[in-house]
Records
---
Amino acid sequence: MKTSTIAAAKNNLSHLINQLEFEEPIHLTRYGKPVAVVMSESQYQALVSPPKSLNLAILNWREQLDEESDVGLTESELNIIRKESSGRDFTWAE
């Protein structure tokens, strides 16, 4: 994640905009705390444009994740979920 102070961004705005065209968004900070995010037009459009289908939205989401992304589950937890089980006993209530 790239960061820049607001003052540095103001002094180097044209350079910052050139970076945004080819790189990830830049977080702007004030007194060391993030206050805003600057991104390219294409990144912005990807955020605000509705997906055409649920399947496309899922595929887009998967593309944004990499192997290092934290999705809330550890690899061992995912393996337990993925493991095939013998199923559960079930009967219809009468």
---
Amino acid sequence: MRERLCLEVERLGLSAVIMGSRGFGAEKRGSDGKLGSVSDYCVHHCVCPVVVVRNPDDKDGGSGEPVVTIKEAEVEEEASKG
């Protein structure tokens, strides 16, 4: 599923992806990170910038402020070097 999502993003030529994360994959993996498995995969493998928005729950301190992770596409960085 997550591989297919990244392939479709590339096929459609999207300029950015905005997705949510509940962080269940991070809990299962015992990761300290806040991203679930699908959003983590997309951040590292999609060809465009990926914005992951996650609302903190009570166990994260309950500040009420959304947690946002942004990753610029490495393709754009390589293109600017050349």
---
Amino acid sequence: MFRYLLCISVIVYLASTARSHSIVSKRKYTADMCDQMPENRIFRCAGGETVCVTKSRQCDGIIDCNDGSDEMDCDAEHEADCKSSFIEKKILDYIQCESDNMCLDKCRRCDGVCDCLDKSDEADCEGYVNTRKCQVPARSRHV
């Protein structure tokens, strides 16, 4: 329960910090740059953000927009990615997010990072011991 609450409070903090200090990741473009790009090649983040990502970054399983809008309504894409990345390769150490079909390496469960939009990877962590350590840094929002 503590990790879940920590996850939520840090996301709120990161989102407010990003807006007040105009933090833009390497995967996002500023409003000026977005305005110069063709609309059919970009996805504008929702939630009051004035940034965008390229269409190729939308529904790719990595949250770029602070509110996660670039990964919302992507069930079909996430399910296809899950199938090609885990199921077809017969990798059994994975978890699937509850609401959006996104799959993650099991080492992402209860690691203090919300990788699922619904935060299900950080739910019910009390007493859970994650014995797997990820070799690659978290792909999503750090908390």
